[in-house]
What we know:
Layout: H1 5-10, H2 23-31, E1 38-43, H3 49-55, E2 60-66, H4 69-77, E3 84-88, E4 102-107, H5 119-129, E5 130-141, H6 161-169, E6 174-180, E7 193-200
Parallel strand pairs: 1-2, 1-4, 2-3, 4-5
Antiparallel strand pairs: 5-7, 6-7
Amino acid sequence: MQPDWDQHYLDEHTPWDKGEPAPPLVNWLAAHPGEMTGRVMVPGCGLGHDVRAIASEPGTEVVGLDLSPTAVKMAREIPQIHRERYKEGDLFDLPEGMLAAFDWIWEHTCFCAIPPELRDDYVRAVWTALKPGGQLLGVFYLDPYDDEHQPGGGPPHGSSQEELIDRFEKSGRFEIVERQVPADAYEGRENRELLVRMRRLD
Length: 202
């Protein structure tokens, strides 16, 4: 059963929101100046911390997408950095104008939040949203489990390098061009994430 994400924002119960962009994203942008350009989508953007980090890069136009109208409203109330905007919507049901429309997708909290049985649908959805040759950069939560979260009891739902290869590369839709354990992470996530960059295949 999917959580009621909007109710979480209404109740101000958003433990995934750290009030700042994901450290792996910040470090990657600093190490790859000028590489992430063009139209960028951030699915499951929440309050838009990652959106604003990307929007500070020259030549980017960033769309933050979220199911929660409350999250989108709150994100819009934060001062704009550059060319970013927020849209209430469903990654699995994108309008025509968001198909084959993006040069990049930044994945942070969406893949681990959806039920694992929808992950192949996720792969199809991001492939469909990207332009041919477009790239997906994501930090995937490999091990989110602790006293509160157990396997099968998410979100967040964990993953593995093997699963990412199976779902993305073996689908024939993507090739992985970079993967590494991020040097920095939110507190408590050290060595529990994998940063992966992949390219859409035609």
